[in-house]
Design brief:
By secondary structure, this protein is mainly α. The chain contains 3 helices and no strands. It has helices at 21-43, 47-58, 68-84. The longest helix is centred in the middle third of the chain and has 23 residues, at 21-43. The radius of gyration is 18 Å and the shape is elongated.
Length: 86
């Protein structure tokens, strides 16, 4: 009896620079949290209000459900909003 070949991983575990997808998403979450904190300070909105608006702009219900691309887009939205509050 011959065994079936092992399944392959659809995406690489680490990028060319050795950073895993998990590390990338963690770094993006930290950056998003910092941007949300800065926005709350500058706008006077609560953290919950800022996070809800950023999530709405990206189409997220919860940050923990976000893909890497959504986290990047959310951070870009936050940076644009921060630029308008200067």
């Amino acid at each position: 009896m011959k065994l079936a070949p092992l399944p392959t991983i659809a995406a690489p575990i680490a990028s060319a620079d050795g950073v895993t997808r998990r590390q990338t998403k963690d770094a993006l979450r930290v950056a998003n949290a910092g941007a949300a904190r800065d926005l709350a300070r500058r706008t006077g909105l609560s953290h919950a209000q800022v996070n809800a608006e950023l999530n709405r702009q990206v189409g997220l219900r919860r940050i923990v459900e976000a893909t890497g691309a959504q986290l990047e887009t959310r951070l870009e939205q936050a940076e644009r909003w921060l630029a308008r509050t200067v």
